[in-house]
Specification:
It is built from 4 helices and 6 strands; from the N terminus they run E-E-H-E-H-E-E-H-E-H. With 173 residues, the protein is of the alpha+beta class.
Length: 173
């Protein structure tokens, strides 16, 4: 999908394609943003929103996490409108006791400020999905569990690497 500031009619929004901004339709110059760039801007902006304690990823993010791949954009997707604006979908975990409507307003402000400020693109809409509510203790436990899992993954990888090598030497380590 190509997003442009020119007044040309664009096709329907398609996820997973680049966003191209051209100031003048007669110019050969272009500025293009990968959807992943916009998603990363949004994900980083969420770190500073009061009441948001984490992002909720898809099943693919959970599979990536299981293999030690960290995805900073988990819980965020974007699509480009025919008017070259961006629609943002965000799935978050909020802190127990946070007023959800205020969290939503703060999320919208943060997204618009960062996406518009960094790219010049208009934000056509923000859809916020609250996936879970966590107490500070629950959040602390989940962060510790993730950290333990990340630390255990390299040890498991090392053990798998040594086992085939030992087998090749006749089972002697």
């Amino acid at each position: 999908m190509v997003a442009s500031t020119a007044s040309a009619v664009q096709p329907e929004p398609i996820q997973g394609q680049d966003i191209d901004i051209a100031e003048d339709s007669d110019s050969e110059d272009s500025l293009t943003f990968s959807n992943g760039v916009i998603e990363k801007i949004v994900a980083i902006a969420m770190r500073d929103v009061p009441g948001v304690v984490g992002m909720k990823g898809s099943w693919l993010n959970r599979v990536q996490d299981a293999f030690g791949a960290s995805d900073t954009t988990k819980g965020v997707s974007v699509e480009v409108t025919p008017e070259s604006a961006v629609k943002v979908n965000v799935s978050v975990l909020i802190e127990y006791g946070a007023y959800a409507p205020q969290v939503f307003e703060d999320v919208k402000k943060a997204i618009v400020k960062q996406v518009t400020g960094m790219t010049g693109l208009e934000v056509a809409g923000v859809n916020l999905r609250i996936e879970d509510v966590l107490t500070p203790e629950e959040y602390k436990r989940s962060v510790e569990a993730e950290k333990d899992a990340e630390e255990a993954a390299p040890a498991a990888d090392a053990a798998e690497t040594k086992a085939p090598a030992a087998a090749e030497r006749g089972g002697k380590a």
